[in-house]
TrEMBL record:
It comes from Cavenderia fasciculata. The lineage of its organism: Eukaryota, Amoebozoa, Evosea, Eumycetozoa, Dictyostelia. GO terms for biological process: protein transport; small GTPase-mediated signal transduction; vesicle-mediated transport. GO terms for molecular function: Rab GDP-dissociation inhibitor activity. GO terms for cellular component: cytoplasm. This is Rab GDP dissociation inhibitor. PANTHER family: RAB GDP DISSOCIATION INHIBITOR, RAB GDP-DISSOCIATION INHIBITOR.
Length: 450
């Protein structure tokens, strides 16, 4: 194994697999290693036996849950915004050829005492029971302004400079009160807390437009989800890397990592390889990361759809912080057998939030109350780490941990940040020239065969 690579990637979480694929397409010689025997790391999808082994070592799943192979349950639940960054990355790398997606049936927000469908247009706002009579007209005016707003056209700005005006001031201009602000900020803009209110409004407008654009693609909701679970995503990017010469090694315990003569040396099972730089998840370099929070996640298996969700086979539910007296939102992602993630007649509801107390699971009670009777429950608390340095000096580029959000936008921003730190140039999300060339060659071959 005594060989030199441009890059060694440690860990097969989604971020590391995307970076591995992107670097391979760029022509870099990549070695990708993981101490685990499966792809996905923290972002893997497990069958029922693996789930029970992880959370209840030694216990066997009850026969009432069905066959283990019918389950592909995400450890880190997230949906994909259909016009979001992850879709752009999938198209940029042509990884969509390895995946099938299903549209998520609905998007809901909690407003005491129950969940309600999220309105995302002026006409939906007028019919929504989320809003009172007078609020509906304020919301209609606000949504019309958002839809007509064009950054390049001052006539659509209504005298507002969104690069300096705060979102709080914009809401005040349209006379919006606490409840509509709650669902706009948390269910449309998908903010985890209320810090955005005192920041320039331009980012909130971009987030709303992304939500509405994503919704316009399929109509039911702005989200899509891969068949067979999120664990398919890292495997698809790993396949891309392999096509472009990337080498993968699972079940490789990492014994030593040292920096010597401007090179990184990684030793596994007595053999050493070198590279110009290393990319890894935080668990491989505990001395180079700082703990900035914790996330609690709970996987719940149900026998029925979530109440008040129109019997949907899948949905997202956001519980805004203020509705339950918290500092950050609670997210619920629901999927079922049509997504190939559980046995027929079962539903999987995965709940996540930032930990705020010494009793993390109790913080999820508001979500448990909404999803109906729980057959089995698997709860975990994960530390949230961020790298201390950007990696340019010691050639060690680390990702952040996965946050509590219910979508992949923050994950992708971290990948783009990593890419720029490593290569010194931004990631431009158009179809890569190398892939375009490959597609053209394939097309010519197909035409020649005809």
């Amino acid at each position: 194994m005594d060989e030199h690579y441009d890059c060694i990637v440690l860990g097969t979480g989604l971020k590391e697999c995307i970076i591995s694929g992107l670097l391979s397409v760029e022509g870099k010689k990549v070695l990708h290693m993981d101490r685990n025997g499966y792809y996905g790391g923290e972002s893997a999808s497990l069958n029922l036996n693996q789930l029970f082994e992880k959370f209840r070592a030694g216990a066997k799943p009850p026969p009432t849950l069905g066959a283990s192979r019918d389950y592909n349950i995400d450890l880190i639940p997230k949906f994909i915004l259909s016009s979001g960054l992850l879709v752009k990355m999938l198209l940029h790398t042509d990884v969509t050829r390895y995946l099938d997606f299903k549209v998520v049936d609905g998007s809901y927000v909690y407003q005491k005492p129950k969940i309600q469908k999220v309105p995302a247009s002026d006409s939906e706002a007028l019919s929504s029971s989320l809003l009172g009579f007078f609020e509906k007209f304020s919301c209609k005016k606000f949504f019309s302004f958002v839809q007509n707003y064009d950054e390049e056209d001052p006539k659509t700005h209504d005298g507002l400079n969104l690069k300096t005006t705060t979102m709080r001031a914009v809401f005040a201009k349209f006379g919006l009160k606490a409840d509509p602000i709650d669902f706009i900020g948390h269910a449309l803009c998908l903010y985890l807390n209320d810090e955005y209110l005192d920041k320039p409004a331009i980012e909130s407008f971009q987030r709303m437009k992304l939500y509405v654009d994503s919704l316009a693609r399929y109509g039911k909701s702005p989200y899509i989800y891969p068949m067979y679970g999120l664990g398919e995503l890292p495997q698809a990017f790993a396949r891309l890397s392999a096509i472009y010469g990337g080498t993968y090694m699972l079940n490789k315990p990492i014994e030593k990592i040292v920096s010597e003569d401007g090179k990184i040396k990684v030793t596994s099972e007595g053999e050493t390889v070198t590279a110009d730089y290393v990319v890894a998840d935080p668990s491989y370099f505990p001395d180079k990361v700082k703990l900035t929070g914790r996330v609690v996640r709970s996987i719940c298996i149900l026998n029925a759809p979530v109440p008040n969700s129109n019997n949907n086979e899948s949905c997202q539910i956001i519980i805004p912080q203020k509705q339950v007296g918290r500092k950050s939102d609670i997210y619920i992602g629901v999927i079922s057998s049509p997504h190939m993630v559980c046995a027929k007649g079962k539903y999987v509801a995965i709940v996540s939030t930032n930990v705020e107390t010494n009793e993390p699971e109790k913080e999820l009670q508001a979500a448990y109350d909404l999803i109906g009777p729980i057959v089995e429950k698997f709860t975990s608390v994960s530390d949230y780490f961020e790298p201390i340095a950007d990696g340019r000096q010691d050639k060690t580029f680390l990702s952040t941990s996965y946050d509590a959000t219910s979508h992949f936008e923050t994950t992708c921003l971290d990948v783009m940040n990593l890419f720029e730190r490593i290569l010194g140039k931004p990631l431009v999300l158009t179809i890569h020239p190398n892939l375009l060339k490959e597609q053209q060659q394939q097309q010519q071959q197909e035409e020649g065969q005809q």
